[in-house]
Design goal:
It contains 23 helices and nine strands. The protein has 510 residues and is of the alpha/beta class. Strands 6-5-7-8-9 form a five-stranded parallel beta sheet, sandwiched between helices. The chain has a four-stranded parallel beta sheet with strand order 3-2-1-4.
């Protein structure tokens, strides 16, 4: 706090604190705001401190400040908005909904209050109510780009892609430099299969506030690369890496020396990708390279369309020696060997990913719907995740109707998981990395998709051009897992029946 004088121990002037925030000195601003509130407690001081703590990435402490603010001024509508948005950021959606409704009660004409309420309704998958509330906010603030884009996201989640694109187009027209609005439009374009426009719009992700730009310069865009070294690097989740690493061999076919940088748990598996000269773990020292490209920018570099998706399978392979080792842990009888994955990573450190994980993951007990299917041996492919409090054994204790085998305690990385998958007949998985692994290996995969499915699975399809062996089971409405599991159980029973040995007709007549 160099240059700041807290005269006579009194509260610091607001303009001093705002100047610190403007200069990006967030920690110093928080300290000054804390001093001001301690010396002269008021709802305004608590409110400002809460907002500064949010900017400092300290949302839990910010909640305390907004609660203190509202204790001092129970009718302060802006305080309810900030409290609701912060609780939403923490995944406390029921509490956020209460605060958002209080905000609307105290600020019935404010579009910000309606927007806050609609955001929380969306996160709770109450899309009809969210769309109605966004429309009310839009009526109070016609043409507001943020409301238009948010309404577009909700219409997308409802499967109304044409209407969603209309909202996104209006949002981008109103704020053409907003990376978030371009990104939201990109996701809808890609879900609609409009790759010609979608991949280019998706590049706006690098200008979003949460983007982690590596400082490598302009990415490769498909120009001549023969004789040069190119770094292809992972940028998002494990599933994204497994899906788009298929392009590495295509880059090598253009004459490039390909260096692949991926998450540490994928290094052993992906070092066998044909054409890749070297695979390194993200965070390790990089040698010199002439060009670079993030993995999810490769479809744009290759001008990928629905018709030109590179879907040559398998492009992921397990080590034959490891397959033999792990096969010993699988049943040796004639039953179908089916791998199960019921949850993604907890993602407690990312707001958007955390909320998606809540919608894509099953409660383990839901899988009991498959227990009635005979002729099947179920194998857990669920990664043991310390970020998730419960596991299958907790929920299916005592009887455990699936009689689930669990080899995952000995798995160290995805090379081991691939070796387990190689010994299976089918993988049934929620939308997570193991689904991409198994599908990329050419295994049949039945994907259990949340209602607002990811853009990569396109809209309204039960197959995937990315993975010809995949079948998609989509929820008919939010949280519709019982219907999905019933459909899976029906089809699994039919598959198991087809596999059972049949007696000769003459034996049946005896």
């Amino acid at each position: 706090m160099q240059g700041i004088d807290l005269v006579a121990g009194g509260p610091a002037p607001v303009d001093v604190c705002e100047a610190l925030l403007a200069r990006g000195e967030i920690a110093a601003a928080v300290t000054v705001f804390q001093h001001s509130f301690a010396v002269a407690p008021s709802h305004a001081a608590a409110y400002r401190l809460g907002k500064a703590l949010l900017r400092a990435g300290r949302p839990v402490e910010a909640v305390d400040c907004f609660v203190a603010c509202l204790h001092l001024a129970p009718n302060f509508g802006e305080g309810y908005i900030c409290l609701a948005e912060t609780l939403r950021r923490l995944g406390l959606l029921e509490q956020s909904l209460w605060a958002a409704r209080c905000a609307v009660d105290h600020l019935p004409l404010a579009p910000e209050a309606k927007l806050c309420l609609a955001n929380t309704l969306h996160d709770q998958s109450e899309y009809q109510s969210a769309a109605k509330t966004y429309a009310q906010a839009l009526a109070a603030a016609p043409g507001h780009p943020g409301i238009l884009s948010s309404l577009g996201n909700t219409l997308h989640a409802m499967g109304r892609l044409h209407e969603a694109l209309a909202m996104h187009d209006r949002a981008v027209a109103g704020a053409p430099q907003s990376a978030d609005f371009h990104f939201n439009r990109a996701v809808t374009l890609l879900a609609a299969g409009d790759f010609a426009r979608g991949w280019g719009e998706y590049e706006w992700r690098w200008q979003r506030s949460q983007a982690r730009v590596r400082g490598f310069g302009v990415a490769w865009r498909g120009e001549d690369i023969a004789g040069r070294t190119i770094l292809l690097h992972a940028e998002q989740g494990l599933g994204d890496t497994l899906q788009f690493v298929r392009y590495a061999s295509l880059v090598a076919e253009r004459g490039a020396r390909v260096v692949l940088e991926v998450q540490p748990s994928l290094v052993r598996l992906l070092q066998a990708i044909p054409g890749v000269a070297r695979t390194v773990a993200r965070g390790d020292r990089l040698l010199r390279f002439d060009a670079h490209c993030p993995l999810l920018s490769l479809p744009y570099a290759f001008r990928t369309t629905l018709e030109s998706i590179p879907a040559r399978l398998p492009y992921l392979r397990a080590d034959p020696r490891a397959i033999g080792t792990w096969r010993k842990q699988l049943p040796a009888d004639e039953r179908l060997r089916v791998g199960l994955v019921w949850a993604g990573s907890a993602h407690i450190d990312g707001e958007e990913a955390y909320l998606i994980d809540r919608r894509r993951s099953l409660a383990p007990a839901d899988l009991a719907a498959l227990a009635a299917v005979s002729g099947v041996h179920f194998v857990s492919l669920q990664q043991h995740d310390p970020g998730r409090d419960r596991d299958l054994s907790d929920d299916l204790a005592l009887s455990d109707p699936l009689a689930l085998s669990d080899p995952m305690g000995g798995v160290t990385d995805f090379a081991d998981t691939a070796a387990v998958v190689a010994g299976l007949d089918l993988v049934i998985s929620v939308d997570t990395s193991v689904a991409h692994l198994a599908a990329g290996m050419g295994k049949p995969v039945w994907l259990l998709s949340r209602y607002d499915g990811c853009w990569r699975w396109l809209h309204g399809r039960d197959d995937s051009p990315w993975y010809p062996g995949m079948r998609i089971y989509r929820q008919r409405h939010p949280d519709d897992w019982p219907w999905v599991l019933a459909a899976v159980a029906r089809d699994l029973a039919a598959l198991s029946a087809d596999r059972r040995p049949r007696l000769p007709e003459s034996a049946c007549k005896r």
